[in-house]
């Protein structure tokens, strides 16, 4: 068990700040977990910023210790190396093992995803 003490924090929806991130057609809402845990974990919500854009991300991989996605609303379709195409909708979730090559193929205009990672900052490798 770690001696590190995390900070208590609350992130209110009414105070949400959406910023551009890794992909320009998406917006990200940082939930404050990275700061509260000294970077050990991260959590943010991803949503569509440009509904008319092609949300295909291209093949890439994230170098993480842990990464899971929960679909808050809408639908999406992804491709995962060795698994093929996977469709998800509101209430579904998936775990992405470290370094698995993947590609976001399509997301509905109302799609919002909760992503939780360890660590909070991680490397993305284009495939």
Describe the structure.
The protein has 127 residues and is mainly β. The chain has a single domain, classed as Sandwich (Jelly Rolls), CATH 2.60.120. 3% of the residues lie in helices and 46% in strands. It is built from one helix and eleven strands, in the order E-E-H-E-E-E-E-E-E-E-E-E. A six-stranded antiparallel beta sheet has the order 1-2-3-10-5-8. A three-stranded antiparallel beta sheet has the order 7-6-9, with no helix packed on it. The N and C termini lie far apart (37 Å).
Task: Give a concise summary.
This protein has one helix and eleven strands, in the order E-E-H-E-E-E-E-E-E-E-E-E. By secondary structure, the protein is mainly beta.
Properties at a glance:
3% helix; three-stranded antiparallel sheet; six-stranded antiparallel sheet; Jelly Rolls; 127 residues; mainly beta; 46% strand; 11 strands
